[in-house]
Amino acid sequence: MITTDYVIDELVTLTRIRVNHAAAVKLHESIMSSSSIEVVSVTTDLRSRAFEIFRNHPDKEYSFTDCVSFAFMSSLDVQDVFAFDAHFTHFGFTLHP
Description:
alpha/beta, two-stranded parallel ribbon, two-stranded parallel sheet, 5 helices, globular
């Protein structure tokens, strides 16, 4: 699996809000030490491409992190995403689970 540091930020923050701090710390440590999850840092170029998506879709409720993911996945020609956010299907990706 591959993801961005923006997604990790969002996931850890959400876990902190919905569960607790200890769970958020444990989740972050588990992801960062996993040999099956690669975390890629968002570059300036990727962030710029994400902002173009964000700017060009004022009619959608995409988060900026969604747009970063869209740009990142498009750059890798990835079509399948593990997510619970229907915005990915709106943007043309196949949602799993």
